[in-house]
Structures are given as C-alpha cells and as structure tokens.
Design a protein that fits this description.
Number of strands: 9
CATH topology of the largest domain: Hypothetical protein af1432
Number of helices: 11
Low-confidence stretches: none
Strand order of the largest sheet: 1-2-3-5-4
Number of domains: 2
Mean pLDDT: 92
Oligomer: single chain
Shape: elongated
Order of helices and strands: HEEEHEEHHHHHHEEHHHEE
CATH architecture of the largest domain: Orthogonal Bundle
C-alpha cells in the first residue's frame, strides 16, 4: 500500500498495482528524458519516476490507467518517491482498492447530516433544505464528491465528510451561544458553503481533476450561483423581503468562507463562524495527511506551508 512507502528507506524494493495520474514526460539537464507520474491506491498518493524507456512508456500509460510496477524507494526533495524499474498495464485488480475514500460510510454520514439539518425551525430555510434533500440527482453527487484535489479532503465522499464536520461544530457552538446569531442561517451556510465544488471538480473512477469552470470561476462563485438557482424551486413560497435577506446572508457566507483569502471578508456572525470552522476542519484534515510521512522523531516538512510539523507517534 502507498502509505507504507512513506516510511520506507531508500533502495527498499516495492511492487504492486496502482492507479496512475499526472503522467508527464520531462527532460532532465536538457538531454535525457524521464516519466513523472503519481501512483495511487486507497491509502494515498506518492510521486514516481521512470527513466528507462520513458518515451515509449509515455505513449502507452495515461492518466487513470491501472498498472503493475516494480521498483525501489528513493529520496527526493526531502520526500520518498518510487523509482520504477518495470511497469505494465495491470490485468487483475479491485477498483475500490485504488480509490482514496473517506473512512466513513457516505450513507451513514448523509443520515447524520439530514438529522441535524432537519432540526431547523425557520420554515423558509427548511423549504430550501428540503428542495436539496428531495433532489436525488443532487444527493447522489453530493455524498460521493471529493472535497478538493490538492489540499484537504481530497478523496471520494470528502465533501460530505468536511461539510458534516463543519455542521456538527456549528451545532456544538449553538449550545454555547444560543442567542448570538441566526442559527438556522448558520446551519444552511454550513451546508452550502462548498457546494460549488460539485462543479469545480470532476472525479472519474480514479482521478480528481478541476473543470474549466473550477479553474475560471472558483468554487465559491460557482456555489453562489448554484444557490441562487436552487431558490427558484421555492421562490413562490417565500416573502420577497425574506428572500432578499436569505440571498444576501447565505450568499455572503458562500462568498466569504475563505476568510482573508476570500473575494469579500466575512461581515456577519454567521459568515465569520463558517469561515473559521471551514479553515479549522480543512487544516486538521490536511495536517494528518502527514501522519505516515514523518521522520523517526515525528517531524515532517511541508513545502506548501514552508514549515515543519510535529506529529508525535
């Protein structure tokens, strides 16, 4: 399994069946070529390189292919990678063994999610929620969608796992600050803050990729427009002034949920809460991606944040 590769020593032999992604033919020192790719199974992803026969293999192996490889562990830029010595198209494999997925069952998470959302008492917000809940196409996509591609919850059902975590923490805060904010608004904001990821990312049976809309418009803007479109289902049952407030407040939560990095900073209590909880849950999920990659003393250098992290064993 990939997670075992993170802690292996240089030159240790490895073999197995993996999905491949990010396959690129590259040039080294202006002359020799090599194939760079990622190897993936349900436990994680690790970079790999192939030197011998790189050009020939690049014409055969493409993103999303399932391969059997033999090779050795090497150390590059303070990280383990796989030096592939032999590679071929795999013949026998179980697809579920190759797709990173949430450790939690999507149907169980969705049942818990619905239980919390059903607690809302605002009839108008509840009508909007029921429009989503009763939409089988939306639900079937939402419960298996990844939470991203490169940072947090980057696996099947990651979006639901993240959204449920944020919603559960909102519910916990409601017990501490019962009258500070509009809690049903916070519940709805927790639910829809990342729905734009349904259009920002595409997941085939193996890989996660960004869509054109995801690159050009970003998931916050996509989510805002998706929410406005959803309101068409309930517009006739909601007072026009109430509808205006919902659009303003929920739309603001969606557009501001990245805090200081968002196109607009959180300006309501509900928006500030969702932005902070989104960051906390995303950071913790990202942090524990290092758990199998630390050195013998528990340290890992993360290039994205340009710092060391300590995870004690």
């Amino acid at each position: 399994m990939v997670k075992d590769f993170y802690t292996m020593k240089a030159d240790e032999p490895v073999e197995g069946t993996f999905a491949v992604s990010n396959v690129f033919l590259r040039t080294f020192s202006g002359s020799s070529t090599f194939l760079a790719l990622n190897l993936q199974d349900k436990t994680g992803i690790i970079p790999a390189v192939l030197w011998e026969g790189a050009e020939k293999v690049s014409k055969v192996i493409k993103d999303g292919y399932i391969v059997f490889i033999k090779g050795k562990i090497s150390f590059y830029h303070q990280k383990n990678q796989v030096n592939i010595e032999k590679i071929r198209i795999a013949e026998d494999y179980i697809i579920d063994d190759l797709v990173p997925s949430s450790q939690f069952d999507p149907n169980d998470m969705w049942a818990e999610f619905c239980g919390i959302m059903d607690e809302m008492v605002d009839e108008d917000l509840k009508a909007i929620w029921m429009s989503y809940k009763n939409d089988d196409e939306f639900v079937s996509g939402f419960i298996i969608a990844p939470g991203g591609k490169g940072t947090h919850h980057t696996y099947r059902a990651g979006l639901l796992e993240h959204t449920l975590s944020v919603l559960k923490i909102v519910k916990a805060y409601k017990q501490i600050y019962p009258v500070v904010m509009k809690w049903d608004m916070a519940y709805m904001g927790a639910f829809v803050h990342d729905i734009g990821k349904l259009r920002a990312y595409h997941q085939n049976q193996i890989t996660i990729s960004k869509t054109n809309n995801g690159r050009l418009h970003e998931h916050s803007a996509l989510g805002y427009h998706m929410f406005l479109s959803r309101l068409a289902d309930v517009v006739e049952s909601i007072d026009i002034e109430k509808m205006k407030m919902i659009i303003e407040d929920i739309g603001h939560i969606i557009l501001s949920h990245h805090g200081k990095f968002a196109p607009v900073k959180p300006m309501t209590a509900e928006a500030r809460l969702i932005a902070e909880l989104d960051l906390i849950d995303a950071d913790l999920n990202y942090f524990y991606k290092f758990e199998d990659k630390v050195d013998d003393d528990g340290w890992y250098f993360d290039h994205l944040n340009d710092q060391f992290f300590l995870i004690r064993k």
